[in-house]
TrEMBL record:
Its EC number is 3.5.1.2. GO terms for molecular function: glutaminase activity. InterPro entries: Beta-lactam/transpept-like, Glutaminase. It comes from Heyndrickxia oleronia. This is Glutaminase.
Length: 309
């Protein structure tokens, strides 16, 4: 079943909006505090180019943890599966995204998966290029192609704000360096990672990325294979098992689609073989997921029978 009209979608947004006051905007990255906690927007993108959106879709969000899906795709394209998964595992942690706890007890000492910060830092380290600038441009170019929008850039203000307050991420890097998972200067990796997290777009762009993933890495309009199909499959699988942090299990039951959230309040959704979804609602629940965004996806999953299970 497909969405039929913008009005229909707007009705769901209005219903979900009342949940925004149950959440709080992320403040551990100071620049994220500026977001409007009442915002809620959504875009649905279908392979024929049809798009339905509701809420203030022109509002920009930074990708934050959503970027982990694309950096993983790029690292896999750069190095292949064996090398990448020698350095980062494939199992959910059940812990918060920035937790350091399991790093020490997992044997061998590698982060448990690429969707937690420790794993994402190890993945970003693997992006090939001569300099931070070149590595960042390669990631940004892939993201621009996936969203079919060459004007996508990054927020220097948010990148700087995160760089100045990223000591927990620095500590993860030092642990990874000591254990031979990364071997570059920590400040350099944090610079690249914070820029990656600050890549800025709106939920319409997000929904286009979701649509490419839904069609196995191929842009359904141009038919260009932007990500190899097996890599798109790996990314979607991680989105199911680890994409919503330590709420991934409940999300799989209640919504049932591959999705990845970020502390900005964005959610990238992909409904295999059907459509891409972009959501933005900066008020977060205690696990760091958009509180109204999850409610909205739940309502949509019921209405349009989106669950893949
Ligand atoms: N930039 C954020 C961080 O590393 C990303 C985390 C997130 O979105 N959950 O803390």
């Amino acid at each position: 079943m497909q969405c039929q009209s913008i009005e229909e979608l707007q009705l769901l947004v209005n219903k979900a909006k009342k949940y925004t006051d149950q959440g709080k905007v992320a403040d551990y990255i100071p620049a994220l505090k500026m977001a409007n906690p009442d915002s809620l927007s959504i875009a649905l993108y279908y392979p024929d180019g049809n798009c339905y959106s509701a809420g203030d879709v022109s509002e920009n969000l930074t990708l934050q943890s959503i970027s982990k899906v694309i950096s993983l795709a790029l690292a896999l394209m750069d190095w292949g599966e064996d090398y990448v998964f020698d350095h980062v595992g494939q199992e959910p942690t059940g812990d918060p995204f920035n937790s350091i706890a399991k790093l020490e007890i997992s044997k061998p000492s590698k982060p448990l998966n690429p969707m937690i910060n420790a794993g994402a830092l190890a993945v970003t380290h693997m992006i090939k290029g001569e300099s931070v600038e070149e590595r960042f441009q390669r990631l940004l170019t892939l993201i621009q192609k996936l969203a079919n929008n060459s004007s996508i850039g990054y927020s220097r203000e948010i990148a700087r704000s995160e760089f100045e307050t990223a000591d927990l991420n620095r500590s993860l890097c030092y642990f990874l360096k000591q254990h031979g998972i990364i071997n570059e200067e920590v400040e350099q990796l944090i610079d690249l990672y914070t820029r990656q997290c600050s890549i800025e777009m709106n939920c319409l762009d997000l929904s286009r990325i979701g649509c490419v993933l839904a069609f196995d890495g191929k842009d359904p309009l141009t038919e260009v294979q932007l990500i190899p199909a097996n890599i798109a499959r790996i990314c979607k699988t991680f989105m199911v098992t680890c994409g919503m942090y330590n709420a991934s299990g409940e999300f799989a039951i209640k919504v049932g689609i591959p999705a990845k959230s970020g502390v900005s309040g964005g959610i990238l959704g992909t409904v295999p073989g059907r459509c891409g979804i972009g959501v933005y609602g900066p008020a977060l629940d205690e696990k760091g997921n958009s509180v109204a965004g999850i409610q909205l996806l739940k309502m949509m999953s019921e209405k349009y029978m989106l669950s893949m299970f």
